[in-house]
Predict the structure.
Amino acid sequence: MPAIASIMKSMEYGPAPEANDHVLAWLARHETGFGHFIDGAFAVPADAAFIDVANPASDAVIARTVAGSAAHVDAAVAAARAAFPAWSGLSGHHRARYLYAIARTIQKRERFFAVLESMDNGKPIRESRDIDVPLAARHFYHHAGWAELVESEFPGAKALGVCGQIIPWNFPLLMLAWKIAPALAAGNTVVLKPAEYTPLTALAFAEVCREVGLPKGVVNVVTGDGAAGAALVAHGDVDKIAFTGSTEVGRLIREATAGTGKKLTLELGGKSPFIVFADADLDGAVEGVVDSIWFNQGQVCCAGSRILVQEAVAQRFTAKLKARMETLRVGDPLDKSIDIGAIVHPVQLDRIKMLVGKGEAEGARLHQAACALPEKGSFYSPALLTGVEPASTLAQEEIFGPVATLTTFRTPDEAVALANNTRYGLAASIWSENINLALDIAASVKAGVVWLNSTNIFDAGAGFGGYRESGFGREGGREGMLEYLSDPAEKTSGQAAEEKTAFAAHTDTLPAPEQASPIVDRPVIDRTAKLYVGGKQARPDSGYSYVVSGRDGKPAGLAGLGNRKDIRNAVEAAAKAGDWGKVTGHNRAQVLFYVAENLSARQAEFETRLRSLTGVSKDAAAREVETSIRRSFWYAAQADKTDGLVHQTKSGHVTLAMNEPFGVMGIACPQAMPLLSFVSLVMPAIAMGNRVVVVPSETHPLVATDFCQVLDTSDVPAGVVNIVTGERDVLARTLAEHDEVAAMWYFGTASGSAMVEKASAGNLKVTWVNGGRARDWQSDTEGQGRLFLRRALQVKNVWVPYGE
Ligand code: NAD
């Protein structure tokens, strides 16, 4: 009799297909083509062109959907706009009832949705059935709860209006749920554009909306390709764009929305590290790789595509991994015992092959599982590449396929350096039995989501989203709701900021000294304020200064005329001061209290300076200095109190939503209230652990340069605050374009705001601009508050499992 062990090895899997007749019948009913879902009805526009939708496992065309045009998008936006007043006017409770109904209906149709998703996308039924669809329902349940609570949990917050939502093809129904559930809960109406390869579950979802009696126009679905997406982005009556997709398209959208006032969230690509330390449970980590890079054929934005293994166990780990690869089964997505299904489209398959080929040409060694692949359809065997240099194509480019690279490291520091050696920052998975080490690495990795001894866990209760070029904004949890609500402290309307420039001609390039009236190359008055860089006074690189007018327009002094090089030096100094983000909130609070105290000690002097520099009355100067002092104390007090959260997610997990600073921030100050606006912007940013490069009021920069003396005497470490004076919009552009600057605040003109948003597209930095609207800096609701702290932070969700 054969031994049990040998039976286990030789056992063959029989086919275990999931029935799909109900989906085939549904598709047959729509044989002539699906229309858009606009204003509560499906309709094929008279001018419709169609896009074929194929099953990637067989290449057979299973449906036709309309290629949405700008006119179709227009109709959908009009329907969403018309529905907005009534929908946003409903009580949260009333909206919650609709969301519960949607959640329940998805649950009732789980099997239908799972089969349809697998046929449309190629993902194994095991995944669509056990992960995608239940999670989509969970999102609607969770957000039904937020709808119920929105008035009490977000007092004063309002829905934004019409949201344009664009999603990719890798998790079609789940991405829809991540987008639509929070938008509806907050009271917005929606125009959703699914991906052209995978529009079918969105159309089935639209049927659910109709069935539960969701008011017409609240959810609209326009199918089509990038052109339809671009038309939605460009539409003048859309208040927010929420996009999930590639970084490349995300960048285009950032540029297209610059200056429009549209709120924007971008969930983009990734190249996430999967870090295995020598003390890890190696078998667990191998299973982790399977769930990380071979889940959904590796077409996962947060896939652990870069495996980093500590050298001591690299050989053993690689051998185990290769052995496990041989047991993976690739095949028909509707077969319940398949591990890996089909790649979404032949175009994507070609891209995977092209990138792997390029990697091999660059010297990487390819190991591919010896799986039998089906004859038809887009299939690819799981692949592992070794000998991959950190700067090579395979280590840097998102492949979006079942392809992992494996690199070794020696020390934890080296692991962090390799992990962060990417322009992305979406996720990381860390494997170690040493909780101290794992949490230390979690804190050091630049990623919006970190899983310890686990991977690819998602829940509606936790925020998901990236750092760096993986985008900005969060989906899920309390963080996600904030993206669909207007903050009552945000200024979305109101007077234009009164902006006088110190420079006669407003240009993008520095004017030559002899042409520009305010620029002189020799001191004419008593003093020339220098720049403040790395804790020291610094001469401007140009050697030029500009005349600053004071009371009655008379020259009051000279300020350094900073240029691109000065900004670069200041950013470099700020980058070196990274320890500021690591010290305790208590330490930062102490320093900030000291700043506040020293400002207080020089109250009279600052009042006099303000009067002579700006010409304000004695009372106004006194009020400005007084508020600046009080505000400095307030942010000092906040430094150790702006806590994160522990989210309620899966059982056996602590999910920590940790507040982290961005790193280096650029700040461009308004002209008005030169001391108070400077303090109001700089203090929250540094209280949260950021280092800043500040362009102070262009017309009255000398108050800020005086402030350097306060910083010098208050133990603020060198490089934490850097001040570059000069032409604000020229300097702001350089900051917005700088790759080392992770976030940028701009408070100036409408055109300057647009310029900053557009220029930030390079590294997709997080921006906060005023759109040219004036803020009342004296007011505690407009000039101070939690909004400023939130804008100075990014949230990292760290998943810590517990239990044996
Ligand atoms: P993609 O950017 O090509 O397309 C995404 C969506 O944008 C599609 O609906 C597409 O039609 C539309 N689109 C294309 N060009 C457009 C334009 N100019 N303007 C507006 N819309 C346009 O991405 P993809 O290939 O469908 O998806 C894969 C990418 O999505 C990967 O980079 C992946 O990492 C990313 N992704 C990110 C997340 C996340 O949460 N961060 C989740 C899933 C996928």
